[in-house]
Amino acid sequence: MEQSRLAQRRADKYLIGGTLLMGATLPGILGLPLFIRGMSLLKKAQKSGLTVRPLIVTLIGYMIFLDAALNCFGWALDLFANQSVLYQTFMTSWGKFFDAGYFWHYNELGIGGASAPGEKAWEITCVLTVFPMRMAACIGFLQMKRWGHQWLIVTCWFGVVIWVGYVANMTMYADIRFSQVVLPVIGWWLFDLFYITPFLAIPYLHTVNREVFTD
Questions:
Q1: Distance, CA of 114 to CA of 91 (rounded, Å)
Q2: Apex 46 CA angle, 45 and 51, nearest 5
Q3: Are 105 and 115 in contact (CB under 8 A)?
Q4: What are phi and psi of 189, to 5 degrees?
Q5: Other CB atoms closer than 10 Å to residue 207's CB: what's the count?
Q6: What's the sign of the alpha-carbon dihedral 89, 95, 97, 98?
């Protein structure tokens, strides 16, 4: 039992480290090898007959964590680090190619960062509430805790609300966000895909045997 716990913990060190790096946007490429290493350690432990977390739980937990981290860290940087030269260069380039909300009057609001209508309200709401809640729920879920499973369901349904609202916002202001960019259609779909993970996870979360989770 102790050997299984240590094997799981060792794999999780690589998995969480890789996911955090990938979620930090710019250093994301550095996180992928760590994540792959963690998955290989987990598979090796399974083949050795050790009792480790089910693969589907690992994939769903880290997939949702990555989605939350990408959005949380990206928007947090736009809120609090919008004067950074590196971040300004990255985001205005993103805005020019995919979403002019991150190019149009960038850093001209009192709070700085993106100036697209409604964008700052979404950032404040999600960075301070939903995405940290979802990441915390993922940690509990990956530890096979019942509260993690329950809160992951709650925050994934929050994600559905965010997806509907944000897509509506982008579409209503498409003349600002997509009329002068290089790849407007791809930009619209990229944002849709950022928020799609709750739809993938919700059926599993509602049908999984809850007895496998502990208090």
A1: 9
A2: 90
A3: yes
A4: -70, -30
A5: 8
A6: positive
Q: Token pair 């799981």 is at which residue? A: 8
For residue 122, what are the β-bridge partners?
none
Handedness of CA 196, 81, 93, 106 (dihedral sign): positive
What number is the average pLDDT over the span 201-209?
A: 87
Per domain, the residue ranges of the chain are: 1-52, 67-212
Q: Give whichever of 32-41, 106-115, 167-176, 178-187 has the largest mean pLDDT.
A: 32-41
pTM comes to 0.87
Return the closest-CA partner of residue 120 out of 182, 85, 166, 65: 166
Alpha carbons within 13 A on the beta-carbon side of 119: 30
Separation between Cα atoms, residue 189 and residue 61, nearest integer Å = 23
Tokens of 189: 């779909």
Q: What is the pLDDT of residues 65-107, one digit of tens each?
A: 998 998 898 888 888 888 888 788 888 888 888 888 888 888 8
23: confidence class by pLDDT, cuts 50, 70, 90:
confident
